[in-house]
């Protein structure tokens, strides 16, 4: 538990402004979904888009649109999951630097899948999800334990350093696994970058139950996260079982991270950027912050995917590369803004 409470600059916003921001974010999400379906390496006409939405795939242009639809849906689901998971991690740890990527959770899921594929021969999509969730959960516990050692407990900087060190170590281990198994190295390397290309509804079906449970648990934890934000002693005085509250909220985040990593690979910084931006819009009340983080995360990942297609035409950049370009400067800004000095 750290003493890094949310910045007082993020004041609670009146309900009428929250409603306006909700409409604005929903409108932005609709626009980005439309652009994601329309923009790609091949130009398509409005008639081709309409035909593909009706299920007609008679031309190459219509086939291109049909391939972009599940890609857009996956980007929205993954962005929503990572945005909400980041908000929960920051709320549970009271750490403004918490993020599934920075805390090593995504890389833990990646390493678990790499080991399972290379040495245990797992091949089913459902097995991928279970392995990824196990790796994400184990890594979260490991990083929090390491970050809690020493004087001062789990300070924001100690958790961030422990997570980044774990991420580097796990990335090296994943590379070692790929080098030892050249027959699967190509597929693992492409997946390790993190992206939504090649998405299909058939692949998404296997992760939907886990995402659904993760979203429900996370949203149900909103009131508990508000209590935890007041401090452990105050939360306990209000009748909250602190360990149970923290464990349930963390379970929701782990389910969201593990399921997303299983199908997309490790995508970083979404869970760092989104909660901070959403606090500027709706304040620190998690009953509003969590759903807003889901919507904003979907917008960010869809927008990053569109940017990756435009910047590298006629090829494309994986969305994990784009979010890294956006998130690294944002991470530096957060560190400087919060003036986290304790080791």
From TrEMBL:
Family annotation (Pfam families): FecCD
UniProt KW S-adenosyl-L-methionine keyword: no
Protein localization: Cell membrane
InterPro entries documented for this protein: ABC_BtuC-like, ABC_transptr_permease_BtuC
Topology within the bilayer: Multi-pass membrane protein
Superkingdom classification of source: Bacteria
UniProt keyword annotations, A-Z: Cell membrane, Membrane, Transmembrane, Transmembrane helix, Transport
Record has Transmembrane as a keyword: yes
Transmembrane segments: 20-39, 72-89, 101-120, 127-147, 159-179, 200-220, 248-277, 289-311, 317-335
Family: Belongs to the binding-protein-dependent transport system permease family. FecCD subfamily.
PANTHER family named among the record's database cross-references: FE(3+) DICITRATE TRANSPORT SYSTEM PERMEASE PROTEIN FECC-RELATED (PTHR30472:SF1), FERRIC ENTEROBACTIN TRANSPORT SYSTEM PERMEASE PROTEIN (PTHR30472)
Name this protein carries in UniProt: Iron ABC transporter permease
